Amino acid sequence: MSYPLGSIPFSGIVGTSGSTDTYAVTTDELNLGGYRSVVSTTVRDAITVPRRRFGMMVTVSPALSATSTTYVLTDVAGTGDLSLNGTNWVVFSSGSSGTVTSVGLSLPSIFTVSGSPVTSSGTLTAVLATQTANYVLAGPTTGSAAAPTFRALVSGDIPDISATYQLLSQKGAANGYAPLDSSGKISVSYLPSVLMEYQGSWNPNTNTPTISDATGTNGYVYWVSAAKATAVSGLTDPSMVNFQIGDLIIYSASVGKWQLTTPAAGVSSVNGAQGAVVLTTDNISQGTTNLYYTDAHVYSAISTAWSPAAGTIAIGDTLQTILQKLQGNISSSFSGNFSPATTSTVTVGGLAAGQSLGTGALTSINEILTTMLAPYIAPTFTSFSMSGQSTSVECGATVSGTKSFTFSFSNSANVTAGTLSVYDVTASTTLASSQSITSPVSVAVGSITNSAPATHSWNASAINNASTPVTFYSGNFTVSWYWRVYYGTNTSVTLAASTDVTSLSSSGLASGFSGTYSFAAGGYKYFCWPDTFGSPSATSGFKDTSNGLPMAMATSTDNAAYSNVQNGWYYATLSVSNLAYSVSTTYRIYRTQNILGSAYNIQVS
User: Fold this and answer.
1) Among residues 72, 100, 203, 247, which is most buried (max CB within 10 A)?
2) What digits encode the pLDDT tens for the residues 131-174?
């Protein structure tokens, strides 16, 4: 080994040089084991292994500190390794009589112990061990007292509870208790026989259900459901006659018969009805002599002897005779011809000026008055439509199949039955004729598809029942095909694909671009419509509705895609295929110049 500079190696024993306090000894850091004093635990842990011995003591006393700690090098892990630091340096306590190297835990077998023994640090735990199902912790079943174990119960473990509870064997037995049936009720068999038990209704006319004195259960009761004046075969008690609805029959075992009881005495029925009876003339038929007063009876009596005839009313005529003469005179006057024949000079009601009177269609006074006061009114269609069919559809949509046409008339009584016809106006085709004039009618319309904006119309006609019949027509029902306008926000500088356009948040069928468009906050504001719609007007075509100022829109300087220009507004073009029918057309794409963080309402005109 090497020696410190200036040291002298010795091979023998070094002794003192005198009796004073001067000793020829080495410094403690050169000792093997023994005791040392250092300034920190770092210096302590740096002591080389050859100078270490288990049991050596080192005091750590920091410079300028009044405190110090003494450590003993201990083989805590039991490995014999002198190089270990950390927990191998145990703080020395002058009152210590030794160290504990292991702690174990032992418990009865009903517990399961884990973590035992603890040789350095740790936790001892104990839990109850698993046991056989339905076992309990109890002392011995017989003999002297002993430690409890887990075992099954025996009869001796259960106290006598007969003074408080009844045994299962006492259920349904004398001096025991009555059981409950499946509905939670006590069976009749456990009740006294004097109780009555309702069995339902009984019809004495058919003896349903069948009963007789020979059979019956004491206390059984039936409710009488029909009236019968005479006795029922097999039922001999004197009370069992003159049955009324609501009576009760009860079987008496002591008498051996069924007996009738009436719940309440008094009137049993009125006009065949029972209960709180209220009668009107509708309930009581009239006799053959005493008749009710009715309009029909009066009209019948007068009409039987009524015989109107023209004549002079005389003193002594009855009221009926006077009325008959008046009707005859009036009828004679109005059925005669208007004389002399002439021509009307003014229009009165339905009678037009210049109409011939006394000849032709207006010969009699009755005909002239009818034309004047109650002229014929020609019917008209007041509505006509195709039920369930929208009048606005997207380009590519098809109207086909059998459609239900609904309609209505004014003066429908003047429409001739079976004269309705339905037409395809656009195709100049009659779709159906001789149809019912009662709405609706079902008519096959074929198949109509338009892949570009267009219209298609249908209408109907009918014939009136005037003296000279006239065909009259409904208004048209028209379906219009439109392109869709798309608009919404997007952060992309342009829309490059058809789906970019169709996925914008808003759209609607339109024939032009004019209107106010609402946009959510964020992104560029995009407007997309068919190229055929054209361009908004110059300068004020896109306007912020909140302040009336024109919107700044993208130009070719912002993006090369916006290279087309009309009325000063730049736009891109793109072939767009609609989602519903995959019909394509060229769309114009307009975009705000900047991304706008706020929501906007933009008017386009």
Assistant:
1) 247
2) 999 899 888 988 899 889 899 988 788 887 777 777 787 787 87
